[in-house]
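Exam revision sheet. Question 4 asks you to relate a sequence to its structure. Input first:
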Amino acid sequence: MVNDNGAQNEDLLKTSSSQIQKYSNTPAIQLIRNTAKLSESMKTAYSNEVTKSIAIRTEYEIWLEYDRGKS
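Answer key, structure tokens:
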């Protein structure tokens, strides 16, 4: 198969693929990738802590109600 410029699509694909592999391993790209991973990890950790906090607060409020009922 040939594209508009007369070059083989397969050759373009191979060239593009090798360029992507070459440039995806640069320090800047690795830094961006690691920053994105860290950001997602922090979002997950924050979400987990919020969930724990809600559970603790709910349990505390239940105990307060229990104590009020005993008084």
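Marking note for examiners. Helices lie at 9-23, 27-70.
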